[in-house]
């Protein structure tokens, strides 16, 4: 369900596997409960990942640390970067996607044209194969399903994301790639390339992650 990336005195960073529930449900322990059980720790979640999403998840070790992290997240002082794969050609290849989020049918959300309390996502994309693009996503707000709705609004739903019309695949191709923050006076940067999914493991994708793609975007991405 997960692998440990780093254990610090106040928090733990794990790599959640794709298809694993965040919360316990249907009689099955979620990733947080499983981590507590396997590691013998009381853990406090301060953000979450959707079931289909893999990647970096930060868990506080105390209520005091959780309170401080919650404050950092609420002030958008934790920089988060995600990777996604999608088929097709987007309406635009880079830039920002902004709009209010509204509930739609079948537990879906949709992006509206109003900007009263918008979800804002910065993105850059690169072609990695015929009809397949790699996306680097930076959510500037924290809304439910924000990244999934953002790419769907461009006409390129995430590969494997059946809820939003993504093509069938062996997993949902959304991965929490980096966390970057200062906690109690110390700077931390955690980066975790995707380890699951045959499309994420294509040589064309791994070459982009190992090469100069990030610095070539001209946007505020990790380098």
UniProtKB/TrEMBL annotation:
Spans through the membrane: none
Superkingdom as given in the UniProt entry: Bacteria
Lineage, opening ranks: Bacteria, Pseudomonadati, Pseudomonadota, Gammaproteobacteria, Alteromonadales
Pfam families: PseudoU_synth_2
Ranges of residues in domain Pseudouridine synthase RsuA/RluA-like: 10-153
Protein source organism: Shewanella sedimentimangrovi
CDD domains reported for this sequence: PseudoU_synth_RluA_like
Similarity field: Belongs to the pseudouridine synthase RluA family.
Gene3D superfamilies listed in its UniProt record: Pseudouridine synthase (3.30.2350.10)
Protein name, UniProt field: TIGR01621 family pseudouridine synthase
């Amino acid at each position: 369900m997960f692998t440990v990336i780093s254990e610090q005195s106040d928090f733990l960073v794990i790599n959640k596997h794709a298809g694993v529930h965040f919360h316990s449900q249907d009689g099955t322990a979620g990733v947080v409960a499983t981590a507590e059980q396997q590691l013998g720790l009381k853990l406090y979640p301060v953000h979450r990942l959707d079931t289909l999403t893999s990647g970096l998840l930060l868990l506080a070790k105390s209520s005091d640390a959780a309170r401080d992290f919650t404050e950092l997240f609420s002030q958008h002082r934790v920089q988060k970067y995600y990777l996604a794969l999608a088929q097709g050609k987007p309406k635009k290849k880079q830039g920002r996607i902004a709009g209010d989020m509204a509930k739609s049918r079948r537990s879906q959300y949709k992006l509206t044209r109003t900007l009263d309390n918008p979800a804002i996502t910065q993105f850059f994309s690169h072609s990695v194969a015929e009809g397949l693009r790699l996306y680097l996503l930076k959510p500037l707000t924290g809304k439910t399903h924000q990244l999934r709705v953002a790419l769907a609004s461009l006409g390129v739903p995430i590969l494997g994301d059946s809820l939003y019309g993504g093509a069938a695949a062996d997993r949902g191709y959304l991965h929490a790639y980096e966390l970057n923050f200062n906690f109690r006076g110390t700077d931390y940067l955690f980066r975790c390339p995707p380890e699951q999914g045959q499309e994420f493991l294509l040589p064309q994708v791994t070459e982009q992650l190992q090469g100069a793609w990030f610095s070539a975007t001209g946007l505020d991405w990790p380098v």
